Predict the structure.
Amino acid sequence: DAGVIQSPRHEVTEMGQEVTLRCKPISGHDYLFWYRQTMMRGLELLIYFNNNVPIDDSGMPEDRFSAKMPNASFSTLKIQPSEPRDSAVYFCASSPDRGPTDTQYFGPGTRLTVL
Amino acid sequence: GQQVMQIPQYQHVQEGEDFTTYCNSSTTLSNIQWYKQRPGGHPVFLIQLVKSGEVKKQKRLTFQFGEAKKNSSLHITATQTTDVGTYFCARRGSSNTGKLIFGQGTTLQVKP
């Protein structure tokens, strides 16, 4: 079975540019999560969706960040404009909705470098 | 609040030595999950503990859930270089809607 798919795997961009990260969750999973990981702040939850609806976006750093889930098999995280402090590894994860013991399955991540 | 604290943050051991990481919460946990992230990789689910005092083993790894369900530990016996990585514990968010709150992680280095 295919796991969570993320693209691109690496992204290098210049400050001020728009960046779009993409995620395809595991088929049949109802939850989708976007995380950011840095050495300083660890693994931070940015936003998550349930059945394509954003449930909690309290972790989104600021208005430059936006996330969408137009259908059950695709989500995007957009940063516009990007800044050097956005450099991090961004993970997408998905989870089925079978109750409080569900585990999360992480994608390989997108390593973003903003110059 | 809902945070889980992990200690230590880093641990360097000689291959063959044991290793333990601890996860503590100020509030009672419904369950606790453990994940491992290899260097350059992504977090991968290891195990989940649900019952008070529960102990589960996976080969050289032993996971415990405290009697009060406020702490958990992961113990590795006779570490190997393949054990290198960061170990995270994670608790369910209070609203029980699928959200996990991860600890800061313990990064294990094993010297051959």
Notes: The mean pLDDT of chain B is 93.
